C-alpha cells in the first residue's frame, strides 16, 4: 500500500472511531429515555407467549429418522441447519406439547433431513427427500391423523438452503420443486424469497442456527468504539461449484470484491480470523449478501453483535418478519446497486445510524433470532410457536372427507421415490 493510501486509511479509521464514540455516547443517553417496547413494524408480537394458544403432538419416530443420524455424525449439531434438531428437543419438554393427539392443533414429525452429511460436512441433497418421504409414510401408516388432512395440520422443519426443494443449487432446487407430499403442510424453513417455487404459501421463515453460547463467549465491552465502517468475511467466488463465475450470489459478492477490495472504508476478505465475532462488534455495518441462497448466519450474527445488517438479497423474506422490525434495524441494498455501496452507506445520516443501533441493542430482538438451550422466553422456538398459533383455527378444507385424497404419493422426481 502506498503512502497516500496508508494515510487515507488511517484518516478513515480515525474519523470512524470518533463517529462511533459519539454514537455510543448518544445511544447510551437515548436508551435511558427509550420506552419499554420497540416502536416500529413489530406490533408487539415479540413479547407474545404461545403457551395456552396451541397444542402440539410430537410423533414418536423410529430412531433411524433422527437419533441414529445424529449419533452417526454429530457435526449436524453445529451447522447452520441444526434448528430441526433443537426444535425437536425443545418440543419434547415444551408446555405446548400434548400426549393426546386427539386434542392437538398441530402434529410434528422429527426427521433430521440435514443430518446425513458428506465427508465435507454438507447435507446430502439426494437423501433428504427420501428421508422425508419415508418418515411421512411411517406417520401415515402408523397413526390416522395424517390421512384426515393429508398433512394440512402438520408442520415440518426443512432448513435446507432452498427449504423443501432440498438442494443447495437454485436451478436444481427449482427443478425438483417442493416435495409433493409436503404441499399441504406448514413448512418451517430458513429459505424465504418472494415469488419463488421453493417458498410455499403459509411457510414460517426462521433464522439459521447460530450457536448462542459460542457468540456469548466472544462478547466484548459494549463501550468498545466501532472503528470499522463496513465488515465482511466470506466467499466472493465459489469456484468449486461455479467455475465460470457470475452465477454464485448472482454476481453480488463478486461485485463487492471488485468494487471495494481496495477501499479503506471496507474491511473485507475471504480469510476468517479468530477475532471474527469481536470484529463484528467493532463494525458499524456488516454486509449480509446472498450466497447460493438469499440467507446466511451472518444476519443473526450481525444483529446479536449490534452491527447494522446490510442486506443484499433481492426479494428476501426475512425471519419472523411480523415480529422483528427489519426495516428499522437494517439497510437494504438492491443487488444491482452494489457498485454504489460506499455512497449509499456514507450518505446515511448519523441519527438514522443511532436509531438502528438503539433498536439492535434490544434484548428482545436478539432473543428472537436465537435457538437457546434451554429455551428462553421470546426466543426463536417461541417465535415459531407464535407463528403456528397465528395460523389457528385451521380453515375450511383442512379436514378431508372419508376416502378423499389431496396428494399424489407417486408425484415427484423418480430419484426421490427410491426407498430410504
Automatic annotation (TrEMBL):
Keywords: Glycosyltransferase, Golgi apparatus, Signal, Signal-anchor, Transferase, Transmembrane. Transmembrane segments: none annotated. It is found in: Golgi apparatus membrane. It is a single-pass type II membrane protein. GO terms for cellular component: Golgi membrane. This is Secondary cell wall-related glycosyltransferase family 47. Residues 53-348 form the Exostosin GT47 domain. It holds the Pfam family Exostosin_GT47. It comes from the Eukaryota. One of its GO terms (molecular function) is glycosyltransferase activity. Belongs to the glycosyltransferase 47 family.
Amino acid at each position: 500500500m502506498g503512502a497516500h493510501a496508508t494515510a487515507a486509511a488511517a484518516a478513515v479509521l480515525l474519523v470512524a472511531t470518533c463517529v462511533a464514540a459519539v454514537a455510543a455516547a448518544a445511544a447510551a443517553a437515548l436508551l435511558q429515555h427509550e420506552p419499554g417496547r420497540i416502536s416500529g413494524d413489530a406490533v408487539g408480537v415479540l413479547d407474545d407467549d404461545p403457551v395456552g394458544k396451541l397444542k402440539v403432538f410430537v410423533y414418536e419416530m423410529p430412531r433411524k429418522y433422527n437419533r441414529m443420524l445424529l449419533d452417526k455424525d454429530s457435526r449436524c449439531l453445529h451447522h447452520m441447519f441444526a434448528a430441526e434438531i433443537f426444535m425437536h428437543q425443545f418440543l419434547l419438554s415444551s408446555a405446548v406439547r400434548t400426549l393426546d393427539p386427539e386434542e392437538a392443533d398441530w402434529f410434528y414429525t422429527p426427521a433430521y433431513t440435514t443430518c446425513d452429511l458428506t465427508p465435507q460436512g454438507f447435507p446430502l441433497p439426494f437423501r433428504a427427500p427420501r428421508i422425508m418421504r419415508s418418515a411421512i409414510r411411517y406417520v401415515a401408516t402408523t397413526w390416522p391423523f395424517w390421512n384426515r388432512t393429508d398433512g394440512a395440520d402438520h408442520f415440518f422443519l426443512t432448513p435446507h438452503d432452498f427449504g423443501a426443494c432440498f438442494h443447495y443449487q437454485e436451478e436444481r432446487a427449482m427443478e425438483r420443486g417442493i416435495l409433493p407430499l409436503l404441499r399441504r403442510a406448514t413448512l418451517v424453513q430458513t429459505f424465504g424469497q418472494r415469488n419463488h417455487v421453493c417458498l410455499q404459501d403459509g411457510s414460517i421463515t426462521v433464522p439459521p442456527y447460530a450457536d448462542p453460547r459460542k457468540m456469548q463467549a466472544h462478547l466484548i465491552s459494549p463501550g468498545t468504539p466501532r472503528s470499522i465502517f463496513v465488515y465482511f468475511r466470506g466467499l466472493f467466488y465459489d469456484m468449486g461449484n461455479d467455475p465460470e463465475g457470475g452465477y454464485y450470489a448472482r454476481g453480488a459478492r463478486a461485485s463487492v470484491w471488485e468494487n471495494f477490495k481496495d477501499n479503506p472504508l471496507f474491511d473485507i476478505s475471504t480469510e476468517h480470523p479468530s477475532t471474527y465475532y469481536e470484529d463484528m462488534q467493532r463494525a458499524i455495518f456488516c454486509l449480509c449478501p446472498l450466497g447460493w441462497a438469499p440467507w446466511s448466519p451472518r444476519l443473526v450474527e450481525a444483529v446479536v453483535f449490534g452491527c447494522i445488517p446490510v442486506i443484499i438479497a433481492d426479494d428476501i423474506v426475512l425471519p419472523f418478519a411480523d415480529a422483528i422490525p427489519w426495516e428499522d434495524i437494517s439497510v437494504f441494498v438492491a443487488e444491482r446497486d452494489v457498485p454504489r455501496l460506499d455512497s449509499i452507506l456514507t450518505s446515511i445520516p448519523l441519527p438514522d445510524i443511532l436509531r438502528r443501533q438503539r433498536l439492535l441493542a434490544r434484548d428482545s430482538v436478539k432473543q428472537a433470532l436465537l435457538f437457546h438451550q434451554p429455551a428462553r422466553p421470546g426466543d426463536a422456538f417461541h417465535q415459531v410457536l407464535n407463528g403456528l398459533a397465528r395460523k389457528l383455527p385451521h380453515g375450511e378444507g383442512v379436514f378431508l372427507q372419508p376416502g378423499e385424497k389431496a396428494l399424489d404419493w407417486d408425484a415427484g422426481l423418480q430419484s426421490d421415490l427410491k426407498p430410504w
